[in-house]
Every structure is written in C-alpha cells, then in structure tokens.
Amino acid sequence: MSNTQTDHAHASLMDTIYSKQRHFYDATRKFYLLGRDLILQRLTIPQNGTMLEIACGTGRNLCLAAKLYPSAKLYGLDISAEMLKSANSNLQKAGLHDKVHLAQGDATDFDANALWGVQKFDRILLSYSLSMIPPWEATIEHAVNQLKPGGELWIVDFGDQARLPKWFKSALYGWLRKFHVQPRQNLEAIARKAARNINGTAEFGTLYRGYAQFAVIKKSSIV
C-alpha cells in the first residue's frame, strides 16, 4: 500500500471512529486524558509567538491555549474531517474562529507554509495523539523539523502505568485497544533520538504514577 493510500485509510478510520464520538468526546475524555492542562501551562508560548497542535481533535486544547496565551497565533491540524467539524464549531462558540486556524492534513508530511503561510513554529503540541498515529516516530521527526530556532515540541500521552496496579494497566490497555489506541513504550528513546538529529535537547518525565508520560524536545536557538 502506498503512503497516499495509507493516509486515506487512516483518515477514513479516524472519521469512522469519531463521526459519533466527536459529539461527546470532550465530556468523556476529561476523566482520563490526564496532564493536558498542565502541559499547556508549562509550554509557555512566547509573546506574539506561534503554536501548532498536531492532531488537534475537537479544538479543546486550542481553546484553552487561546485563553492562556492571548497574544499567540494558534494553528491546528487533524487528519479527521469529522473532528475538524467539532473543532470549528467549538471555536465558533468560543469566539475564537479568527484567532485559531485549522487545516486537514497528515501528521507526517504536512506543509505549514502551504496550509497557513507559516514557515516554522515556536511551540508544537502532541496531546494524546501519538498513541493513535501508526507512523508515530515519523510524526515526531517531522514535527521537530517544523520548529523555529529555540522552538519546543511538547508531547503528553499514556504512560507505562509502572506504579499503578497491574490489573489497572491491563484493563486500561484492553479498553484503549478498542479505539485503536496503543501507548508508546519507547517514547523517551525516540524523543532523545529526534533531539540529537536537530542538535537539540530532550526532557522526559512521567505523571500520576506513570499513568501519563511527557517529553519536551528543544531546538537550539543557535542557527
């Protein structure tokens, strides 16, 4: 199967999953997509800076980012046309449709200049999305190449549940598989590799006893 066929297949799968779920996605996911708000607060978009959320879903994080960083220029990308319907609706309701710019595209090969006329970003966010993107390593590789000098890629997703009961991990992972979600066990290694490829640095940590994990890849400010 070609890359184009694979992209279309994944887009179709996401649309099938979220055509109905998008209507109650935010109401249910707030109970287990933990750490999103904390990461948004920590990423500190510079004054008048730019942020892209890859796999932005319903636009929930972008709406919060707009409140936290009122001077920022915000962008959202998602492969699912169904999710973008909800994102556009939510931005309209929040009065943010002129502040946040959305586009449909694949996380591994989007062209930000063609989509929005933006060359590079100060911050890029991947929030509970790598676990649903099959070519997730390529997604990280492409994302770091979209950073400005001094820019940062922030990632938060499901962790290894190392300090939680084994039955909890088994039940959670089993439930996630029903939605084609696969936690990435080697995120730290891949993040550090991506950082080395751009002569940057990487930080890694866990949240909530390993329920979630996060990584920060920082590009050098020296060109």
UniProtKB/TrEMBL annotation:
<dbReference type="GO" id="GO:0008168">
    <property type="term" value="F:methyltransferase activity"/>
</dbReference>
<dbReference type="GO" id="GO:0032259">
    <property type="term" value="P:methylation"/>
</dbReference>
<keyword id="KW-0808">Transferase</keyword>
<keyword id="KW-0489">Methyltransferase</keyword>
<feature type="domain" description="Methyltransferase">
    <location>
        <begin position="48"/>
        <end position="169"/>
    </location>
</feature>
<protein>
    <submittedName>
        <fullName>Methyltransferase</fullName>
    </submittedName>
</protein>
<dbReference type="InterPro" id="IPR025714">
    <property type="entry name" value="Methyltranfer_dom"/>
</dbReference>
<dbReference type="InterPro" id="IPR029063">
    <property type="entry name" value="SAM-dependent_MTases_sf"/>
</dbReference>
<dbReference type="Pfam" id="PF13847">
    <property type="entry name" value="Methyltransf_31"/>
</dbReference>
